[in-house]
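Methods — Computational structure assignment.
A single polypeptide chain was analysed. Its primary sequence is given first, followed by the predicted tertiary structure written as structure tokens.
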Amino acid sequence: MISSKKFWRTPKGYSALALIAAVTYFLLMEHRTHLFYALPFLILLLCPMMHMFMHGGHGDTSHDHSDIPDSEASRKGVEDGRRQTLDNMPSEKGR
């Protein structure tokens, strides 16, 4: 009969978890000053990493403009932008 136990639920898995926990504890306790010095740089490094791995949907739009030539689509976008800008401008009637 084949056992369907997961590795982490076996005695070797528990030993590995204990070893990982002990090593992590001693690394953090002995090198905490190095960690605090590197923390600002790690936070700055986190920004591009988030953009690389968490923004997977950029460029995949649901709008299909394949039938409109690029110049016409560009002109239409400019017109829409101008219209939105004019709609959002405060009116001068109150002056």
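Note: Residues 7-54 form one domain.
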